[in-house]
Amino acid sequence: MARRQWSIAGQLFALQAVVVTLLVLAGAAGAVWLARSDSRQAAKDEVLAVAQAVAGSPNVRAALTAADPSATLQPYAEATRVATGTDFVVVMAPDRTRYSHPSPDLLGQPFIGDIGPALSGEPFTVTNVGTLGESVRAVVPVYDDEHRIIGLVSVGITTRAIDRKLLAQVPVLLGAAAPALALAATGSWLLSRRLRRQTHGLGPGEMTRMYEYYDAVLHSVREGLLVLTRDRRVALVNDEGRRLLGLADDAAVTDRPVGGIDLPPAVSELLGSGRDAHDEPVLAGDRVLVANQRTTRFEGAPLGTVLTLRDQTELRNLASELDSVRALTEALQAQTHESANRLHTVLTLVELGRTDEAVRLATRDLALAQQLTDRVVGAVTEPALAALLLGKSAQAGERGVDLVIEPDCRLDDSPLPTTDLLTVVGNLVDNALEAVAGAPPPRRVRVFVGAIDDELVVRVRDSGPGLDPDRVADAFRRGWSTKSAGRGLGLALVGQVVRRHGGAAEVTRTDDGETLFTVRLPVPGAAR
Question: What integer pLDDT is reported at residue 9 of this predicted model?
């Protein structure tokens, strides 16, 4: 098996640990360097002060003019050296001859090092290599009463002694760096732990592949997807979602409030409510969509909302046509049963010798059926619409409703796509049949389909209870229905066709109290 890559959290922790360690080490090194620099400067200040104090001593001035300066200066210098903690205190003549030194063997020998500035009357400090090794030293002139230079004083501390003092401070510096390093490591570990929990322990390669796969899948599926954040801003819309919602491919919608995007009203209402929805039909332009919406959560906390959309426009149209065919089939089955009963009656009358009554009974029903067929087929040459009206007539007869095709109904050729024509006529007739189903007799529905003044006009009137004038504006809105269990899609589909073709729809009340639905769709005059 291939070696598993480090997770992002593990890599981040390792990187932070290295960076923090280097920073702490660099800080400690910087602190040591600053301490060393401060120690050197403090040593310079110390030896200069001691040298100036020795040079200003009356005993030193007096000893320099004595016959044997070393007899007085040597014990004085050593006592001063021990008292001040310096490494040497040397009193010399202007010609470098030593009168004092920690090593008595070197008395009387010349002083090693620079003394030029002191001979010019300027005290100075310098780092030189002498008989005791490298040292930080100060050289100060000694004046007599007439302000003449009669000697020099040099006080020094070896760099080894300075470094020993500095090394004594290293444990303190390390003691301060160790808690800082531990605190930084603990913070990095806590951060990596949180990141590991949020990334589920995935490595960068795995997350990259996951993003590429998920992005490809989300944008290639034939289902619209819209994701909102918890503050109702758009996080993602895939390609199918843009198509179904009518959004341009280059429209900038990501990270925008959902209320600031031009969405279909039904979709905006569903997204704005934030409620869960399961297979809920919504209208988006001229499409019928099935929406599913739910709130996503992680560890109990809401993350946002996911809305999925499926296009069922064609399926709805097919289902509508299938319902019409099914209703026609059921009506034909009922008519077949009724015809069988009548045929049995006719045969019985013939057997009883009452042939005249048998002929009248048979020809009466045949004439009524033929009259309806002739009227529909003669007025409507569109075969699908003619079949629909015949089916609705049979369906109305089964419900005890008188479906009347207006005498002036005439449509030689459909100026609209057949599916749109069937959607308008079929849903208006179904709505009328539902309206009169619970009304007292006589229950009647009248249908007119024809071309008038370059318009296709569909009028359906019924003797039902009618609509409340305040609800007329809602009649063609999705979800509105006079039935408590209705889904309210029939008239909404009619409204879709009307809007798509730039037509108009209205609901009025006739003088005799009937409800009249009128749909007008503009068509070219040559199409009539």
Answer: 58
Cβ 458 vs Cβ 416: under 8 Å: no
404 within 8 A of 446, measured Cβ to Cβ: yes
Angle at 225 between CA 224 and CA 228, to 5 degrees: 150
Residues 119, 152: contact at Cβ < 8 Å?
A: yes
- Helical segments of 309-417, H only: 313-351, 355-379, 383-399
Measured distance CA(239)–CA(220) in Å, rounded: 7
Q: Measure the CA angle with vertex 319, ends 455 and 374; round to 5°.
A: 55
Integer Cα distance of 190 and 34 in angstroms: 33
The Cα–Cα gap between 317 and 112 comes to 113
Q: Calculate the alpha carbon distances from 510 to 424, 425, 462, 467, 517 in Å.
A: 21, 20, 10, 12, 10
All domains of the chain in start order, with CATH: 10-165 (3.30.450.20), 221-311 (3.30.450.20), 316-527 (3.30.565.10)
Task: Please list the alpha-helical segments (H only) found in 250-312.
Answer: 265-273
Q: Are 270 and 280 in contact (CB under 8 A)?
A: yes
- 3-state secondary structure (DSSP) of residue 126: strand
Give the model confidence (pLDDT) of 222-265 as tens digits: 788 888 888 888 888 888 888 888 887 767 778 788 878 888 88
Which residues on neighbouring strands pair with residue 461, listed in sequence order? 446, 516
Helix, strand, or coil here: 76?
A: helix
Residue type, 311: D
- Residue 502, both tokens: 């730039």
Q: Is the pLDDT of residue 213 over 80?
A: no
